[in-house]
Structures are given as structure tokens and as C-alpha cells.
Amino acid sequence: MKIPHPIPYQGSKRNLAKYILPFFPLEIKTLFEPFSGSAAISIAAAVHSKANRFHLNDINQPLIALLGEIINNPDKISAQYETLWTEQQGNERKYYDIVRDNFNATKRPDYLLYLLARCVKASVRYNTNGEFNQSPDNRRLGRHPRQMRDDIFAVSKLLKNKTTLTSVDYKEVLKKATSKDLVYLDPPYQGVCATGDPRYFSGIDFDEFIHELEKLNERNVPFILSYDGRTGKKSYGQNLPPSLGMYRLEIEAGRSTQATLLGRDDVTVESVYLSYNLIGKLDLAPDEIISSHVVRQPALFEF
User: Fold this and answer.
1) Residues 6 or more apart from 222 whose CB is under 8 A from it?
2) Per-residue pLDDT at 292
3) How far apart are CA 229 and CA 251, in angstroms?
4) Any idea where the domains of the chain sit in the sequence?
5) CATH number, span 69-152
6) Separation CA 272–CA 288 (nearest Å)
7) With the CA atoms of 253, 29, 68 and 99 taken in that order, what torsion angle do they form, in degrees rounded to the nearest 10?
8) What's the pLDDT at 149?
9) Are 292 and 245 contacting, i.e. CB atoms less than 8 angstroms apart?
10) Which is nearest to 157 in space by CA: 82, 57, 72, 78?
């Protein structure tokens, strides 16, 4: 089944969703994404009827505004994108710079969608002032408006009247989750980013984040966490404390985008952690899930 994906975004879990969704419990009242990015997991979950409601949050307010337009005003944002895409013809490089300047001044959602469709490898970059400063991929014009429109309307159909959108600190969102919900966390990877890193709008504090996971456990809120990984021989981040009681599996995510940009052929392996209360809901023993630190894809749970 084709999963619509109107927002191109480096780091999106679009390609990993088929390995993450099988660990969803059968009944989910609300799926929370405190670090939603392009909302790839929620969109995939909606396609497969994995949740009744969705809460998308990201500290990047223009990104949430764009998701809001896609979900609630698909005709408007589709038309705006088509206008930008058409007006660039014959002056693509200069036009991109103009739109980028206009976006940094106004934060308009249609400008952001155009920039994401045209920037290098869909790899967002910000300067120290929080301004979008990534360059365009001059080999392409961005996604064709007809294809973009189809995916925008498909996402709107999946999420409209089912989705809460916020742009607040992730801790405020976690407070709302209950034992009947599921939280999917995809924060900025430790060891890769920090506040001010150009690849992320904002970083998070490691110790503070661990404390928030502990509170989820105390409230019996099930969660899935994508947090660290390795590329080639290089690993990112310190180990999460065993006291959290999570089960860890590693999934091959394919060739590293960053390595590709540098002319290398490194494969990225991403870690996915399952909370112990989620394992209880799935009624699985640890040896039925995966052996720790073994690189494999969970074929047992594939669709």
C-alpha cells in the first residue's frame, strides 16, 4: 500500500515505518509524536488504521504550520506550491534564494514546502539565528505539483478531524499521554546534534530526556524510541540506562545520506527501543523480539 509523503525531510522514518508499526499494540487511543518532523510514522499508522487519533508536535513552528495546512487546507497549500513551482521556471537558482529569504522573513508554510522540495537531499539546515540556509539541488526542480497535490490530499483524508497540532516543548506533550495511548519518540540523535547544530532546529538535554522516559514508565505509558545508531564504524551517543527496562533492536536503514554526500558507501544502522510496558501489551517474551545488539529486521512482525 502506497503511503503518501508530501514533506521530504532528511531523517524521516518513512522507510523504517514498516519495521516500527508492527510493534504497535492493537488498540491505541491516541498516537503521540512529540518530535513529529514530517509525521511519517503517524501517516503510516493512519494508512494501516493503527490509531484513532494523532497528536503531532514539533518545536519547529513553521513545520507544524505546514502540516496544519496540508491536513486542514489541502487545496490552498497545493495551489500555492504549484504557483511557486511554476514561477521558478527558467530562473530556478535565483528564485530559490528569493523564496528562502521570503520564508525567513515570513515563515509562510508554502515557502517552506517549496524549499524542502528543492533543497539538497531534503537536508534542512539552519544558521545560528534559526534561519533556513540550505542550498538548492540545482539538478532538479522539486516534486511535480500534480504528484505533490495527490499526496497532500491523501494525507488530509487520513488525518483531518483526527489530529491535534502543537508546537511546544516535548515535555508538555508527554504529560498528556496515558496508558491507553502510544508515544513514538524520534528526538534529535545524541552525539549528532545539540542546540545550535545546523541539522536540527533545537537539541535536547540527555539527562532531562532520560528523566522524562522514567516518568512515562511510572505512569505506565507505552512508548517506542528511535534515538541512536551507527554509520559504518562510527557510533553515536551513549548507552541508555538499563534501569529504563527497554528492549533494543537495530534496523538497517540503508546507505547514509551524509556519507553519500561525502562520496562514501557507509550503511546506517538505527536503534529502536521498546518500553517494557509496551512489550507487556504485545504479550511477547524478550527472546521472541530480538537479541540485543543484533542487526536484523524483525521479519516475524512484517506485514
Assistant:
1) 25, 179, 181, 182, 183, 275, 277, 278, 281
2) 38
3) 9
4) 17-59+164-301, 69-152
5) 1.10.1020.10
6) 16
7) -10
8) 98
9) no
10) 72
What sign does the dihedral 295-280-45-194 (CA atoms) show? negative
Across 80-94, b (16+ Cβ under 10 Å) vs e yields bbbebbeebeeeeee
Question: Residues, the chain, total?
Answer: 303
**The dihedral formed by the CA atoms of 282, 296, 38 and 75, expressed in degrees to the nearest 10:** -80
- CB of 222 closer than 8 Å to CB of 182: yes
Structurally, what CATH architecture does the domain formed by 17-59+164-301 represent?
3-Layer(aba) Sandwich (3.40)
Q: In degrees rounded to 5, what are phi and psi of residue 255?
A: -70, 135
Looking at residue 197, what is its pLDDT?
47
- What single letter denotes the amino acid at residue 61? Q
pLDDT for position 195: 43
pLDDT at 123: 83
- The predicted structure's pLDDT at residue 128: 86
For residue 150, which phi and psi values (nearest 5 degrees)? Answer: -60, -45
Q: For residues 252 and 119, what is the distance between their CA atoms, to the nearest angstrom?
A: 25
**Residue recorded with cell 491535534:** 164
Among 207, 205, 292, smallest CA distance to 246 is for 292
**How distant is the alpha carbon of residue 8 from its chain centre?**
10
- Entry pTM: 0.86
Rounded Cα–Cα distance for residues 87 and 53 (Å): 38
- If one counts every other C-beta atom within 10 angstroms of the C-beta of residue 228, the result is 22
Q: Residue 64: what residue type? A: I
Mean pLDDT by 10 residues, the chain (303 residues): 86 83 94 96 96 96 97 98 97 96 97 96 86 92 96 98 98 98 89 45 83 98 88 68 92 62 66 93 64 39 33
- One DSSP character per residue, 194-208 reads -TT-TT-S----HHH
